[in-house]
Amino acid sequence: MALVDIPLFIIDHSGSILGVIALSFAIFLLQQTEWSKKYGSIVGFKIGPQNAVVLSDYRHVKELFDKRGGIYSGRPEQYAGQQIICPDNIHMLLAQYGPTWRLMRKAMQGLLNINAIDALHPIQLAEATQTMSHLLDDPEGYYDHIRRYSTSVILASVYSQRGESFQSPKVQNLYNSQYRFSRILEPGATPPVDAFPFLRRLPEFLSPWRTEAKEIRQIQSSLYFNLVKETKERRSKHDLEPCFIEKLLDDQEKNGLNDAQIAYLGGTSMEAGSDTTSAALLTFVLAMTQHPESLKALQAELDRVCGTDRSPNFDDLDQLKYTRACMNEVLRWRPVAPAAVPHMLTQDDTYEGYVLPKGTIVFINAWAIHMNESEYDEPEKFMPERFMGNKFGCKNQDDSDDHRRITYNFGAGRRVCPGQRLAENSVLLNMAKMAWLFDILPISSEPIDTSIRTAFTDGVLIAPHKFPVRFVPRSEQRINVIQGDLERAKKFFARYKE
Ligand code: HEM
Question: Are the beta carbons of 325 and 387 closer than 8 angstroms?
């Protein structure tokens, strides 16, 4: 039976098929989760003439994304993103599965292979110290300090530059360009030009989105090309710490990348690594305001492993089992990418009796997987302990089940996020330093909203809206330790350009 024989149209109160998606990605996802309970863990629906399927069980993800990766690794057509803003498959996240994507994915390994990631520890450590110092000096600005952290780590690793504050021009330029770029990529931000290609031929005065897309292209490409130009200039003056772009330029003959591909590999790393990592950290802070018992357990572990004379560092992470459980729970409870990033099927396929035509868009419903009541004990509850007894945090799951991933935040298959290890290192280290240094407290006894519907931004990637929180240093001694760390970090930063 063809899955599309039983199409489920998404229709909002205005009668528009795309309405629900356009109105709210979160509502789309929650609706899908309800449907998965009613219709089963594979739900098909139509977006205009476009077939789409949502997978709400990890077993399907393993079977289709991981085992049949050769045909489940395309990206859905995205005219504004793929044709106007980033043509020629220049943007790795949006690129179609094929030789250009393969070339760039391989080159990305230069930044994100295990050894290269481990070599970034000193940058992450120094930037985490800077963030703790920002939080001590200006706790109200926590939201921007955390966002600065993730961008600055990528700036240093990729371009040997940094953003000392959230107001630094490089950080601001990235977030401004990224804000407009991700908005135009959201479903419903343009007329349905992917489902109905004739709409692409409308004149520009009837298509303001096209003008916006062209402007974004201009802003984005000049930012990415300029960063490479600056890197080249410093390289010629021998004033550069080793960085990813330098390596790509040195190996250009071997890696076969053109200038634009190099520029966009740098840019894609900044985009992909900034908002995502900071969203996970902000969710951690939100969870701590509501779960003092988890914060206490975290602090007990950190004090036992690190004492009070020094703050946590990378050597401690292996021993910090509860801290890791807490990170896994943050990523499970409020996934940064609750429907990962959709893939597109590039050949007709059949699965569990369904016919899936070429061109079908396939979503992983990470939210539904993480909230499955038959697998997780009280899934709505924030409970890091669930990961202490079981690797997957599940009640009856065999720890050795190789069909499962601990989290579906990072997608799956051949397009799985290559930055997962880097991101997790950042999240773990900052969580550890923050909980070691501060009591993270609500401002009042009123509970803070943590609902995915109302407390989070809406879109493919979600982050908590700003919420009231107090960062109260745990002791004078701990403040002194961070100040000592900061002096060392400043010496380290002297090698990087602001
Ligand atoms: C908590 C942090 C992060 C989350 C939740 C996240 C999530 C994701 C997801 C869901 C995808 C799509 C996977 C798929 O299609 O199946 C992705 C792709 C990607 N991510 Fe991440 N990511 C994070 C951090 C990072 C970092 C730090 C980097 C590195 C600088 C990075 C680089 C990339 C790249 C280059 C892609 C495109 C892969 C491709 O299309 O082949 N990400 N990420």
Answer: yes
